[in-house]
């Protein structure tokens, strides 16, 4: 089957039971996306599919024929970091870094959702979302960080959101 991954055409012939996460890591050698729980609970495996953030462990690769997938490798590179990668570094938004690819992919998807005006569980005004710290925390609540770098993660996302 065929995917577009990080702007490149890629082919794989996975077992029909294989998750998108396993195909990215094991078949396509894109190991930037991490496997934490493999149960949709930690967010470490978050990638963007057709611009929307999803948990790659909870979806079968065969459901994504011809989809446009972005992993952390497609967001920035050494010397040319994505603004969120740069902000995470400057704000010390990670400690072990294991959750960081998922956090950053999730934040990219989340900022796009805010730009589209989508509300969240804590939005006070659905006509104009104010991306305050409560909103950032709520919208990033699917991404766990065992090191508890949360305050710095929120600082990094807030800075990029306001830029
Ligand atoms: S590995 Fe997918 S949510 Fe934890
Ligand atoms: S930086 Fe270690 S789990 Fe988040």
Please outline what is shown here.
The chain has 163 residues and is an alpha+beta fold.
Shape: globular
Indicate the low-confidence ranges by residue numbers. Answer: none
Distance between the first and last residues' Cα? 39 Å
- Write out the strand line-up for the largest beta sheet, numbering strands in chain order: 2-1-5-3-4
Order of helices and strands: EEHEEEHHHHH
The total of beta strands comes to 5
Bound molecules: FE2/S2 (inorganic) cluster
Largest sheet: 5 strands, mixed
Tell me what the structure shows.
By secondary structure, the protein is of the alpha+beta class. Strands 2-1-5-3-4 form a five-stranded mixed beta sheet. It has helices at residues 20-27, 72-75, 83-90, 100-115, 133-139, 150-162, and strands spanning 2-5, 8-11, 46-49, 52-55, 68-70. α3 packs across α6. A hairpin with a 2-residue loop joins β3 (46-49) and β4. The mean pLDDT is 96. The chain is built from six helices and five strands, in the order ββαβββααααα. One FE2/S2 (inorganic) cluster binds at residues 35-38, 40-45, 55, 57.
């Amino acid at each position: 089957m065929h995917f577009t991954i990080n702007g490149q055409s890629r082919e794989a012939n996975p077992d029909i039971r294989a998750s998108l996460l396993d195909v990215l890591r094991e078949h396509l050698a894109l190991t930037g996306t991490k496997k934490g729980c493999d149960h949709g609970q930690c967010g470490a495996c978050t990638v963007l599919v057709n611009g929307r953030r999803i948990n790659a462990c909870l979806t079968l690769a065969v459901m994504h024929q011809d989809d446009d997938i972005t992993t952390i490798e497609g967001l920035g590179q050494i010397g040319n970091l994505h603004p969120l990668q740069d902000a995470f570094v400057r704000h010390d938004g990670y400690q072990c870094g294991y959750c960081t690819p998922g956090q950053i992919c999730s934040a990219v998807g989340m900022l796009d959702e805010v730009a589209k005006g989508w509300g969240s569980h804590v939005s006070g005004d659905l006509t104009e979302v104010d991306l305050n710290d409560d909103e950032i925390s709520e919208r990033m609540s699917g991404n766990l960080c065992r090191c508890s770098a949360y305050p710095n993660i929120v600082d990094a996302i807030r800075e990029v959101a306001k830029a």
